[in-house]
Amino acid sequence: MTPPSVENIVTGRRTRAKSALAIVQKDKASAESRLERVSSKHGALLQEIERLDIELQEKRKSLGVVEKESSWLKERVQLRDVQEGLLTRRLVEGWEDEVSKKVDGEEDEVERAEV
After folding, report:
1. Is residue 104 in some structural domain?
2. Is residue 46 a part of any domain in this protein?
């Protein structure tokens, strides 16, 4: 048995190195391509997040306005319920300063106070 020649060893190394270089270059190209896509997607997602943050802030402001108006309207409806009840009672029972009196068997006449 004779050891391989230096020339054969060098040639084998070069062949393996060329093969490894081709694989590394192919993987590098693939990684660069994916990196471009991922970077693009990253930028798009950041922009969308910023847009959604702004939209969320606007929605929160709108919600605050709606909640404030809702609260005000609930109070207004409650007030109108009270007013409606009081006015209905006045129409049915009259006012305290009104006096009812009978006039010769006719229906009650109502004297009204001057306002």
Report:
1. no
2. yes
Question: Could you tell me how many helices (H) and strands (E) the chain has, helices first?
Answer: 1, 2
Q: What does pTM read for this prediction?
A: 0.53
Q: Distance (Å, rounded) from C-alpha 10 to C-alpha 22?
A: 18
- Write phi, then psi, for 54 (nearest 5 degrees): -65, -45
Q: What tens digit of pLDDT does each residue of 19-35 get?
A: 999 999 999 999 999 99
**Tally of domains in the chain:** 1
Q: Report residue 8 as tokens.
A: 């054969």
* Residue 115 resides in a domain: no
Domain housing 28 = 7-93
Q: What is the DSSP string of 67-87?
A: HHHHHHHHHHHHHHHHHHHHH
Confidence class for position 100, pLDDT limits 50, 70, 90 = low
Kindly state whether residue 111 falls inside one of the protein's structural domains: no
